[in-house]
Amino acid sequence: MSLIEMRVPPVGESINEVTLSRWLKAEGAYVKLDEPICEFESDKATLEFPAEAAGKLIYVAKEGDDLSIGALVATIDTSVVNDVAPSVTPPASLSTETTPAANQALSTNTYAAGHPSPAASKILEEKGISPQAVKGSGKDGRITKTDAMQAEATITPEPAKVEKIANIASFSRAEERKKMSRMRRTIAKRLVSAKNETAMLTTFNEVDLTAIMQIRDKYQDKFVAKFGIKLGFMSIFAKACARVLMEMPEINARIDGEDLVLPQYADISFAISTPTGLVVPPVKNIESLSFAEIEIALKDLAQKARNGSLTLDEMSGGTFTITNGGVFGSLLSTPIINEPQSAILGMHSIKNRPVAIDGKVEIRPMMYLAMSYDHRVIDGSSSVTFLVKVKELLEDPMLLFMGL
Fold it and tell me: Do residues 349 and 370 lie in contact, with contact meaning Cβ atoms separated by under 8 Å?
């Protein structure tokens, strides 16, 4: 017997541990060189772990185990060849009822059939579609990202979930306990750290979006015809923030030991909600991008975030963050700083409200803005000035479009 040890590889700077979220191959199955055998969940992304040799897979770690970099995950017996591979016994967490196609695949040691890739799994979970209801077009019948995206969201939910809801009795005292995902644990630690380790304060203002809405209504069709994407509020807000960040570098700064680092660029992170938690990937050099380039970059990041295909590089960096609670109906909130950044802007719902304009009451589309900042880096006067400057650019966007 010749065994090859499969150990957790380095997956990125500052990441010392991962969680084995699930096995992709059954124990005892024959695996090919570079064939994914399991998924790791890091603080930032889900990663597939490929086999380093061909042979029989022997589990060492279990699903849900937290593993340090270099920890032993499995071994591969390279003395076993494909035509005499042992029978497959799926792991308990994956031994659910399968389709006929999947059963046939298992009987021939093809565990990929009916099994989604990490990206496909995220999409199906978001749509509420069981993998059993999707026919895979990938290698050995595996469900690909394209299969998941094309799957109809109207498919009946899994019977087990429906039955579980129906069986909840009146006055029930039942509880469900499940382990927090690595991403959720990381989010929790960072939020507590931001509250405890920074001198965080929040300043508020409101912005009249009449001019922006008029410009979007007037030029939207031409914008879409030329660039193939709509002009949204986020690119305009990002561009306004980037302009003021270049004028007020202290808002863009971060603490590094006893030094203050002041970037001469605006890499703005955008909070994106996903089925597994909140991610904040940055769009780099916003100050140098056009509105269309920002919109395209945002669309790409949002799609990757929701299907779990963001790379570690795409998740790293950022000098300032924008979060939009308005898409969920939030009228006003106090966003938490995204460390090691020193400031975050919170957008909120647009509401028609009566306001005084030149001595008269008018109904205008108004939005509350909230900027949380680290008082160790940013003075109160600077935070207020920053928000006022952003407000002025948003209320008179021609200043922004013309570079004035």
Answer: no
Burial 219-234 (b: 16+ CB within 10 A, else e): eeeebeeeeebebbbb
The pLDDT value given to residue 114: 65
In this structure, are residues 39 and 308 in contact, taking their beta carbons and an 8 Å threshold?
A: no
Of 352, 248, 229, nearest to 294 by C-alpha is 229
3-state DSSP assignment of residue 129: coil
375 catalytic? Reply is: yes
Annotated catalytic residue, options 34, 65, 221, 375 = 375
Helix, strand, coil share of the chain (percent; to 5): 35, 25, 40
Nearest in space to 200 (alpha carbons), one of 63, 339, 43, 54: 339
Q: What is the pTM (predicted TM-score) of this model?
A: 0.65
Please tell me which residue in 65, 348, 379, 396 is annotated as part of the active site: 379
Comma-separated ranges of CATH 3.30.559.10 domains in the chain: 184-401
- Any catalytic annotation for residue 348? no
Q: Where in the chain is the domain with CATH 2.40.50.100?
A: 1-95
CA distance linking residue 37 with residue 30, whole number of Å: 10
In the CATH scheme, what is the code of domain 184-401? 3.30.559.10
Q: How many whole angstroms from its chain centre is CA 371?
A: 22
C-alpha to C-alpha distances, 298 to 41, 91, 157, 170, 347, nearest whole angstrom: 24, 38, 31, 45, 16
Residue, of 151 and 74, whose pLDDT is higher: 74
Q: What is the pLDDT of residue 118?
A: 62
CB 45 within 8 A of CB 116: no
pLDDT for 151-184, tens place per residue?
765 444 444 545 555 566 788 888 888 877 777 7
Residue at token pair 């792991």? 91
- DSSP-assigned letter for residue 118: H
Rounded to whole angstroms, the Cα distance separating 69 from 49 reads 13
Q: For 1-95, CATH number?
A: 2.40.50.100
Strand ranges of the sheet holding 36-41, from the earlier edge strand across to the other edge: 46-50, 36-41, 17-23, 66-68
- Cis before 340? omega within 30: yes
Mean pLDDT of 62-90: 76
Residues 205-227, mean pLDDT to the nearest whole number: 95
Rounded CA-CA distance 107/98 in Å is 12
